Amino acid sequence: MASSRDDFIIAIRSAFLKKETQQKFSLLSLLFISILIIILSSFNFKIVNNLRNTINEIVYRSSFVVSIPENLIINSYKTITEYSNFYDEYKLNKKKLENLKSKEVLNEIIVSENKELKNLIEDFTLTTSKILAKVIVDHDSPFLKTIIINKGSAEGLKIGTNIFDKNYLIGRVIETNFKTSRVLLLSDLNSSVPISITPGNIQAIVIGDGKNSGEIKYIKGNLIEEIQDQSIGYTSGTGDLFRSGVPVGRLTVNNESVYLNFYSDFSQLKYVFAEIEKKNVNQKNLSSQVDELTSSNQNTEAIKLKLLNDQIKILNETNSKFIEENKNLVSETENLNSININLKQIIKKQIDEINQNKTDQKELEFLRLNLLYSSKCQKSAFKKGYKIGTSEYRKCILNRGDY
Amino acid sequence: MISFQKKNWLYKVYTWLPVLVLYISVLNEFDFNYIDLQYFSFNFPFLLIFYFTLKEYSRFDFLLVFISGLVNDTVVGLPLGISSFSYILVCIFAAYLRNITIRPNLIKDWFYFLFIISLINSINYSVLFFFFSFELDIMFYVVNNFFTFLLYMPIISFFDKYLQAIND
């Protein structure tokens, strides 16, 4: 028992510590160095980053050179198969081109409409410049779906820069070196893209499935049942990771899962576009002034003063208009008042006349009844009555002779 | 059979061939991914490192193996040092097997290889998942492990032929 344990310890010691004839380092020391490198690479030390960038630059170029024979064989095979299907593809392409031409007109209209709408809401529009980059390393690894392109921080690429194949989004930069960058493809398990699904304008997130498509997850409001087969997915711009409105792929509904088939074939990437973005304020009238604003403070003040002067000028003009209008209204009011006074006098006269008329009519009635009933109401030696001219007499006449 | 004159430059290149192939494979990520079989991949460096460490091949420098791991990490995009760690572990296990073996047995070596690649892939997966928060499909690792194990025999027989040519 003791001897077998000794053998085991001897074997372990020999495996770890013994340096062979040509070996410069023991395995144990190399093991510790590798652990140290893992720990250091997990921290963001500047010296480690610089070392990593240097290694990246050398290794990416070497990898590109080493991959040339393999790529040559693969490309030759693909070229041969392409030639054999050339005529059929030509026919299909011709049909597609006709359809696309008609769609392009519509697309141009939509783009211009979109620009106008963005101007209206005074949104930020992105002035972008796309630069062409060559894919120098693409091993189609089953673990991490990444590619290396020959443009880096020297060309203005930074972490998060969107990468396109034609007009389709394919990924974003996750690591930049001076002349090279690593792009995380949308199909990678670590990739997540916020998208809008049309029709329905449903918001969702696409997670790469590690193969060549993506799976729809985290749908807002659990609207999975409303998604139609062959719907279009385009970037929503949520989270500011990807530019909004970029087509990503078409959806396939499969039982309860929804998959996104990307428009671009990630295994066929040779050249891609990297979009370098600059934010500009998109106020149409102020665009030139805003440029001056950023250039110097003096210009800023001048623009502000100019704006204020313009505003004062407009206010003065409006004010003088109001004053003139006010004067007209005052004179009109005076006229109306005089008319009103005249009318009141007329009314008063008419009321007086009416009252006079009423009194005259009452007097006339009294006189008429007096002719008829004066004998009944008048006082005499033989009859009881009232003296003429008294109020009782008048009352008696009006009551037609009744006392 | 191929025969060399010992001081010929071609002979020197031939003796360095395992290291050259190792570097080509890590730079090229040589695993036939382009044949588009679902999940198909295998870890050629593991096979190569295991075999030549087991055979105690004199030109197979551990420092070069260590550097090739750094190169592999850079190409694949893994955190620096992960592959070096894996490759050195393969070397350690192979050296241990060599030290305890009196009479080599191909089948035993084969299953020992399965055990160590399973262990190393598990460590790799755990480190990447727990410490670096990588989202990884475990199926890729399982299938990669399986195919690396399956391809051990044909590739080993090819390497045997290579060593035989040198010894002759």
What does this protein structure show overall?
The complex is a heterodimer of chains A (403) and B (168). Chain A is of the alpha+beta class. Chain A has a domain at 124-282: Rod shape-determining protein MreC, domain 1 (Thrombin, subunit H, Beta Barrel), CATH 2.40.10.340. In chain A, 51% of the residues lie in helices and 21% in strands. Chain A contains 7 helices and 12 strands. A 6-stranded antiparallel barrel of chain A has the order 1-2-5-4-3-12. Chain A has a 6-stranded antiparallel beta barrel with strand order 6-7-8-11-10-9. Chain A is rod-shaped, with a radius of gyration of 50 Å. The mean pLDDT of chain A is 79. Chain B is mainly alpha-helical and 168 residues long. Chain B has one domain (9-31, 41-167). Chain B is 71% helix and 0% strand. Chain B has helices at 9-15, 17-28, 44-54, 62-76, 82-100, 106-131, 138-150, 152-167. The radius of gyration of chain B is 16 Å and the shape is globular. Chain B starts with 8 loop residues before the first helix and ends with a helix. Classes of the chains: A alpha+beta (403), B mainly alpha (168). At the A-B interface, helix 1, helix 2 and helix 3 of A face helix 2, helix 4 and helix 5 of B.
Beta-strand content of chain B = under 5%
**CATH domain fold name of one domain in chain A:** Thrombin, subunit H
The helix content of chain B is: over 70%
Distance between the termini of chain B: 9 Å
Average residue-wise pLDDT of chain B: 84
> Beta-strand level of the residues of chain A, as a percent range?
15-25%
Side by side, the strands of the main sheet of chain A go 1-2-5-4-3-12
Can you tag this structure with a few keywords?
heterodimer; A: alpha+beta; Thrombin, subunit H; six-stranded antiparallel beta barrel; 7 helices; B: 168 residues; mainly alpha
